[in-house]
Amino acid sequence: MMPYFIKGLIYTFISTVALAWLIALAGTVGSRHGAALGAGLGLLVVGARFSNSAIWENKSARLMAINIGHEVLLFALQGAILARWL
Question: What is the pLDDT of residues 51-66, one digit of tens each?
Fold first, then answer.
């Protein structure tokens, strides 16, 4: 299991750095705006890519909603923290 955890940590770190870069680039200030930007990116960018993959992998709509919802919440939380911190 450890290789999966390490890879997951690395990919989460990469996406967090990218979100921080976009928050700084957009000049987003405050937790609320950071959460909104993060949730928007999570839904419209990550969600769209996950949906595309899920269609080809024949995943159920319920599983797709769970996976996308997880990413939207993760990005919203990260966006709120990063916009407040940066």
Answer: 999 999 999 999 999 9
**CA–CA dist 31, 54 (Å, integer):** 31
Fill in the DSSP letter of residue 1: -
Question: 0.70 exceeded by the pTM?
Answer: yes
Ramachandran region, residue 58 (left: φ > 0; alpha: ψ -120 to 50; beta: rest): left
Residue 36 to residues 25, 30, 79, Cα–Cα distance (Å): 15, 10, 8
Model confidence over 67-86: pLDDT tens digits? 999 999 999 999 999 999 97
- Domain range list for the chain: 2-85
